[in-house]
Amino acid sequence: MPDSLTEQIDLIRPFFDTEFYAQTPDLPEDCADLIEHFCTTGWKELRNPSPEFDLWWYWVNHLDPAHDTVNPVVHYALTGRELGLSTRPPAPSTGPGERLPDDRPVRRACLFAGFDADGLVDEAALLLLRELSRFADVFCLFDCFLEPEALAELQTVCTEAWAIRHGAYDFGSYSKLASELVGWDRLAEYDEVLLVNDSFYLLRPLDDVFARMDAQACDWWGLQATKGISLTRDTPENQFQTPIPLDRVRDELLSDFEKSVTYDFLLGSYFLALRRPVLQDPIFRKFIEGVVQQPTKLLIIRKYEIGLTRLLIGRGHRFATFMPELYPFHPVYSEWAFVMIANGFPLIKRYLLHRNHYDVPDIASWREQVLDLLPQAPVEVFERHLARTAPHDRRHRGLSIHRGTDGEVVVPSLLAGTEFVKADRAVASQPAVWVFAVDRSTHQLPASSRAILERIRGDHSVTKIVLTRGKQFETGGSPDLLTAPIRSPEGQSHLMRAGVVLVAERPSWTLQVPTHLAMHHVVAVRHGLRLHRHGSTAARSVPDEPSGPAYPARPLLTGILTASALDEAEALASHWPTPRSAAWRTGLPWHDLLLTRRTPDWLAGQEERLRSELAGRRLLLLLPAPLDASGHRLSFDAAEVERLAAWARSTDTVIGVRDAAGDFERPLASTFGKSALDLSPVRFPDLAAVLRAADALLTDHDDSAVDFTVTGRPVIGFAPHVADQEEDLLYPIDQVFPGRVHRDFDALLDALEHLERPMSPSAQRHYEQIRNQFVEHQDAGATDRVIARIRALTGVSR
Amino acid sequence: MSPRRERASGWRRFVAPVVHRRRTNDVGHELLGPEQFSAADRDATKSEHRWVFPVDSTEHTLTGDLRALFEQVRNDPRIEKIVLTRSRHIDLPGTNVTVVPLMSAEGQRRLIDAKTVFVTRSLSSDLPWPISTEHHRVIHIGDETPAEAERPGYTAVVAAGRFDALTKVADFWPLKFDHVWATGMPRHDFLTCRSVELPDDLRVQEDELRTLIGDRGLVLVLVRGAALPDPSRLPPQDGATVWGVRGTATSVFSSALDLGTRSFPDLEVLLRVASMLVSDDPARLNDFRMLGRPVVDLTEPSPPSDQETDPPRLTDQVHHGAAARVASRVRELSEQAQQTSPDR
Description:
The structure holds two protein chains of two kinds. Chain A is α/β, with parallel strands linked by helices. Helix content of chain A is 38%, strand content 14%. Chain A has a seven-stranded mixed beta sheet with strand order 3-2-1-4-10-6-11, sandwiched between helices. In chain A, strands 18-17-16-19-20-21-22 form a seven-stranded parallel beta sheet, with helices on both faces. In chain A, helix 20 crosses helix 22 (489-497), helix 26 crosses helix 29 and helix 27 (638-650) packs parallel to helix 33 (745-753). Chain A is globular, with a radius of gyration of 29 Å. The model of chain A has no long low-confidence stretch (mean pLDDT 94). Chain B contains eleven helices and twelve strands. The longest helix of chain B is centred in the C-terminal third of the chain and has 19 residues, at 322-340. In chain B, the strands form two sheets. A seven-stranded parallel beta sheet of chain B has the order 3-2-1-4-5-6-7, with helices on both faces. In chain B, strands 10-9-8-11-12 form a five-stranded parallel beta sheet, with helices on one face. Chain B starts with 11 loop residues before the first helix and ends with a helix. Chain B has helices at residues 12-15, 34-43, 64-73, 105-113, 123-126, 162-171, 188-192, 200-213, 267-273, 282-290, 322-340; strands spanning 47-54, 80-85, 97-101, 114-119, 137-140, 156-158, 180-181, 217-223, 241-247, 257-258, 276-279, 295-297. In chain B, helix 3 (64-73) packs across helix 11 and helix 8 crosses helix 9 (267-273). In chain B, strand 11, helix 10 and strand 12 (295-297) form a beta-alpha-beta unit. The interface between A and B is medium-sized, with 33 and 30 residues.
């Protein structure tokens, strides 16, 4: 392959149609040289270089679809042209289609792709799986960790079931099932193989679907077809307003679709059926086996969802759909969804109900609309699933879209950037309105914010507003405690009148609008003490340019809470450009949660539940640091798990594992299985409750190691690869870690054997030195000091 | 070439105070006024390989960090070293070294043409001319924090280690963390190296000091401000211990050795020899803590009576080779600049 860009451009030039390429959607505005854009990024985004060259077609048919190391056009110029390789699908033409046997029951398999962020198998998914298992042997793969009980239940419903995190979404599961877990040989025994995912709720039995489709001659079929995606929504060919019979689509329109700059016809890949001609097609198998993680959702759609349709049509496989017509633009996400349901469509997409990204009005009444058509539909099951899994803020937006009295669709709109600043300036901020913004990553209030909020919950002189994201916040009926999503007009309105805004770390990241200190007092409460570089101390592959004479340094924070001189230095360095005058050496309210003898009411439920599960036994908490660039993380092999479990049994200790929030692999919970108690955030959202109950902490180098020192309880380090991770740490780890950091497992186990004994005097001195340097106040008074400081700032007294 | 060693007190030859006189080759050249200097500075092409070492603005010596850095590159022919002197005569031979008075036309010219300028306190304190941080690479190597108005614009600030780096980000606000080099302070090389590795004049000072104290342990009283230590809290002067005083405490410790800058210009020599440090200077206290030796910290409240020295605290540790690391970082910047701007 030619290395230099110039060489590549020279090779590609004969096959590059500048005028055509300029029509590909969403080209950057500053894209001066189109052919260079194609050679550097365009081909990886599947932008075709000319009407005569379909990248993905060439890629799948003649190259390895799993790798993006070779630009298909360069390959064609160097090799493919001479070999006469096809550069685009032939004109659509199909045979008569495969007929299923009518002299025996149809042998059918279903490859089912599931996912659940909480590691559960929802009743909604079970309903679907039970229905599918009436018609097929169901082989199910969840792309995430599943609780052992959930996986066991799944295995009772399905022929076989697995939970393996691969991160390649539904097509990744189809791929893994077909090529590894079930295998092509086994699938060859079936007349038909279904590919089904869990992106929808099943509204009615599937008998009609299979009855109708079994009678059709086709090589593959889906429930419905779609013409157009978000990217191509405005193209003239996608503006049709009435359904088009599928026969006409197949016989007349397919060749027109081929002329699109961006091909956008597909059969919904949430439910596809493939018959023998497809299953035995080597290019189809290569396509499925070549599914890998993609950098964007758009590429998943274009390569796999649309890509599969186009490949199969191009390979001459006749298709059919259960819905006999092609409905206008993306019907499963538009008002047409309800029309299709009325016409026998068996499902409704989850995304329509919780995201409503095409702004369907009055989706808030979806249950009533469905029940009008299908009185038996188990909508309550679906509503419970939505309540558990749907992002609260997005759902709030989707449900608020309605048709106004004039018939226009009313969509909530948000102010961005300077628009917000302008509006903000026009609203007088009120010192007694305090906004508590949830963290953008966890969607929870930072523990320090929660401690402050709960302390002033009964103080009616202050209006408290919690700005939420994906999770709802229960106000408990307090009249002066309000909530609204950050990304909502109400949330923005609350923000404008706020005298005080409490955020975890970076206000612009949290609030997604600029907040000026002239209008609001913005206070960063922080997540806690830090051992790792983050924010403006984060390790960068390319450091910032040398500083130069002057750079803008408008402080973004009125105050930042700190626990000591050392912590203050870190906080200021990591929150550039915060000056020293903004550092509030109040202590961190979240430490109060660990120091107070009586558990705050809002934490008590979690702590009591955990203590009840411990049943009087001691708890060793395993808490891994977040995965860093080195790729190393706290892990144990099976033999080590067994030795740890044996130690725990012999010392009447429970090992509790808490995988990081958002880690769908849950590696510690998976490795330890029943040898440990699962203390992940899904089960115990607040770390404070878990740390309060922990008798000792074992971690590689999680930041919480230093926070935990306020309890005075032991901290043990286990980080065999810490030398590779030094770059991500703020300090030499052995110097600031409150216990010894063990590099090998035997030493760790030896340390655990001595855990019951008091620390040696030198270990105790070291521990206290770390604690005292990181935390100056150990009096559980930080919350009160912060509130006093804010009151002094705003003049709001109780 | 190294300084001549003649006798025990021969080091004085190198730092003997002299009244500055304009050099003969400056005759006919007038000093530029501030505006002329700025204009000339703006127009001049900078030499990427010219490094400027101004002497200390108070003591007029080249000691500590800048001296250690200078020693690191002293015989590197690729780097042109310009030492800008004040009232004291400085004799620092080496390869491609120019010693020139700061207050001279030639000094101005050399400064204007140099890309890299090191300062230990602040630009305005160390150099009396309006140096533009837009045109020069200004690197702070010291422990004094400039006034807020003077902080923006440093290319880099050198720190003793990771702890010091975090502190310096706030001290030099609005400097970014990326611009603080946790290389270690070059002067620490003088604290950790073997005697034979010291420059000759420092080694001569050390020999003289050791001769002065004999077998006794040295309690170094280094006080800059008004917080005088209570002599009764220090180990008594006897056959095993001797007090040595530098700074403002000489009147209280009249029986102590006078270790002032006239006799011992290089403080690192005193720190190498001392077994205990009594001080109100946070940077020197930190140096001493980094060596793992006891200190009496006059900036802190008195420790409990059963504890003679301050409690252990988290500090950076000394890793020899700081001067080499700093020099390497400066060279990297030069190389990057040349790659992006080949004409300069």
